[in-house]
């Protein structure tokens, strides 16, 4: 079973990397780009088939390690 | 008088450990040793220092993995018992990740690694670390970091203010605080903070690199003097 975890900066936290990339995109001609926020993607492979247990564990992993709750939020999907 | 015992904790990737060790040797009444991050029972110390560097390669987030090193429980206990704990740069990041200090450090707003001397103002002298300073004293200290932007939400910032927990703010040479003197975008120009009890200090600038006028500043001596003046209880 795979967990796909997406970690993003919270709204209200400055994302200088995102703003810089946005400026580059605009310079490239993509005038419609209004904002860019850059986050992280983690792919975690888990043994077992119990989706509920896996979801609980992945959620714990996010809260304990993958995410700094001061500045980040997260969501994940199990496949 | 028995000597003050000081530990400099070394994580894989720490690189300011030697300078911290050397800084403490300038005080003959102290005895200092390195403690490797895997040591879960390092013993009792009067003072602990978490040095700067790139522990665990800054993987995931700066300090995010170091906070789970075996030595960390002893460090948490030391802090809970009210003994001085100083986290410098990566050490500050580790303290925030470990929840020993509030808030977080992340990428500088310039997106560049900044290596230069800056000025910081001691906001309060009511701590062992700043007791050798005068109120509002301006210190010239070097910074060397890519992820020193301090962030805390509004409620946390208010708490820090109310608890007089802001230790240092970036400022101009004359002590005036302001965005132009802030090298990395830290909220409220914060360069260092205390925990509520003021026995834990995290700071981004490097006092251990400001111990000798030949290296640009000896203002770091004030912080070590204050911290190491404690008499063993």
Summarize the structure.
The complex is a heterodimer of chains A (79) and B (233). Chain A is α+β, with helices and mostly antiparallel strands and 79 residues long.
Q: Unreliable runs of chain A, pLDDT <50, ≥5 residues?
A: none
Q: Which secondary-structure class do the elements of chain A indicate?
A: alpha+beta
**Can you give the helix content of chain B as a percent range?**
10-25%
**Structure annotation, total helices of chain B:** 5
Give the helix/strand layout:
The complex is a heterodimer of chains A (79) and B (233).
Chain A: E1 2-9, H1 16-27, E2 40-45, H2 51-66, E3 72-78
Antiparallel strand pairs in A: 1-2, 1-3
Chain B: E1 4-10, H1 17-25, E2 30-36, E3 47-50, H2 72-80, E4 85-88, H3 90-97, E5 104-106, E6 114-122, E7 138-145, E8 149-151, H4 154-162, E9 166-171, E10 190-194, E11 200-203, H5 220-228
Parallel strand pairs in B: 1-2, 1-3, 3-4, 4-11
Antiparallel strand pairs in B: 5-8, 6-7, 6-9, 9-10, 10-11
Describe the structure.
The complex is a heterodimer of chains A (79) and B (233). Chain A is 35% helix and 27% strand. Chain A has one domain: Phosphoribosylformylglycinamidine synthase subunit PurS (Mth169, Chain: A, 2-Layer Sandwich), CATH 3.30.1280.10. In chain A, strands 2-1-3 form a 3-stranded antiparallel beta sheet, covered by helices on one side. With 79 residues, chain A is α+β, with helices and mostly antiparallel strands. Chain A has 2 helices and 3 strands, in the order βαβαβ. The N and C termini of chain B lie close together (12 Å). In chain B, strand 1 (4-10), helix 1 (17-25) and strand 2 (30-36) form a beta-alpha-beta unit. Chain B has one domain: Class I glutamine amidotransferase (GATase) domain (Rossmann fold). With 233 residues, chain B is an alpha/beta fold. The model of chain B has no long low-confidence stretch (mean pLDDT 96). The interface between A and B is medium-sized, with 11 and 20 residues.
